[in-house]
Each structure stands twice: as C-alpha cells, then as structure tokens.
C-alpha cells in the first residue's frame, strides 16, 4: 500500500497539532495559577531535553547528511564543514543577542520576574524551526521508501512533538509572555513540519541538500540558547534549590525514555 499525498498531509497536520497541544499542557487552570512557581523547574526540564535532542538526534542527523558520498564527496573529508556550521550558528547567536539586539532593542527588556530575555526565547524557536522542518522531510521521505516505515517514522515524530511543544511554551512563559504568544510559537513550529512534508513530496531529495547546510547551523543556534542562556539561569536558581538543577537531568532522561521506546517500536 502506497501512502497518498492526502495521507502524508494528514500526518504533517497531526504532527503540527502535537506541538501546539504540548505547549497548551501548561495552561489548564490549576497549572496556570502556579506556573510561575514551577517555571524554574519546567525551564530546567526543557533545557535538558533540548541538549539531548541536539547531541543525540539533530547533530548526528546533520553529520549523516554530509556523509552521503554521492552528494558531498568522501565521508572522511566532510565532518569539517558541518562542525564549522555548528560553530557559526553558535557565534551568530552570541553576536545577535549580545551585540546587535541590545543596541537596536529588538527584544523587550527583561523584568525582574522574567527568567530569560524575549530574544533568547525567540532565537531558540528560530533554531528549532529547521529541526521541525526536517521532521516533515523525514515523514515524507520514509513514506516514499516504504509505507510501513513511513507510518512508524510519523508515530516517532508525533510522540516527541509533545515535549518539544512543552519546551517551547516554557521558554515563552519564562520570557514573560502568555497564551497568545505560546499558540503563535507552537503553531509556527508545527507549520514548518507541514512545509517539510510538502516540499519533500514535490521537490524530493533536493531538499536534503539544503537541510544538510541548515541543520548544523540550527544546531549551533539551539545549542547556544540551551547551554548559554538556559543553563546559566538554571544554575543561578539551582544554588538554593537543588531540584532545579536535577530537573535538567530529568529532561535528558525524558528524551532518552522517548528515544529508546520509539527505537524499540521501530525495530519490531
């Protein structure tokens, strides 16, 4: 059985909705009332999850794209380029956040009750856009190879979209924003998955060549926000509250729990 274009589109829409629903987890009345007390822990959980995604999921995928001999030459000579792009993404974010943005006031100033700046939150989302775009590419590419594999890859991506949306929402709230901004951010991230499905379906493998450059660059951006923006904030609050720091490890554990569960399903 071949997966039709309509079925692929439905897969993309459901994956996008999972991003939005993951963000909305923080907004039931009981949680919303106390989210400021919990936000330090939620942000730490998200930081750990983001770091694990970068090092275990996104960066290896980026390197694998560069090790395709027919597209990029000899694999032994290709690791230099994605590592330079990773570093470039990290340094560009540093330059933007601490050189350009402070002088042009591109983001709102931080208030005392905000954990991170608006620029940091939106920069992280910008980095995740490439990752979620590649999620859509992965769904469409797998479906064109084998319908069963396509369905399994969709399920894997669908399940990790919930904590991804949760992480995005925690950063938006930490920057002092509310439900409207969370909906906009998670919807935008979700829409890039649909875009990935559509472009790969109509353009095919040419998308993989573009993603090979964009994915390590986005990894550098996301790494900067997780390691240089979120982790220092976690460390600041973790001195008096050890559970805040431990929440980072809980975020990493959450990633591995989902990661290994999905690999077990895919191998069956």
How would you explain this protein's 3D organization?
The protein is an all-alpha fold and 268 residues long. It has one domain. About 4% of the residues have low confidence.
Brief write-up:
With about 270 residues, the chain is mainly α. About 85% of the residues lie in helices and about 0% in strands.
Give short descriptive properties of this protein.
268 residues, mainly alpha, 85% helix, 0% strand, globular
Number of strands: 0
Distance between the termini: 19 Å
Percent in strands: under 5%
Uncertain stretches: 101-112
Globally, the shape reads globular
Radius of gyration: 18 Å
Helix content: over 70%
Query: Major sheet, described briefly?
Result: none
- Whole-number count of domains: 1
Structural class: mainly alpha
What's the helix-strand series? HHHHHHHHH
Mean pLDDT: 77
Number of helices: 9
List the helices and strands and how they pair.
Layout: H1 5-24, H2 29-66, H3 69-72, H4 80-104, H5 118-145, H6 147-174, H7 179-203, H8 206-238, H9 242-267
Helix pairs in contact: 1-5, 1-6, 1-7, 2-6, 2-8, 2-9, 4-8, 5-6, 5-7, 5-8, 6-7, 6-9, 8-9
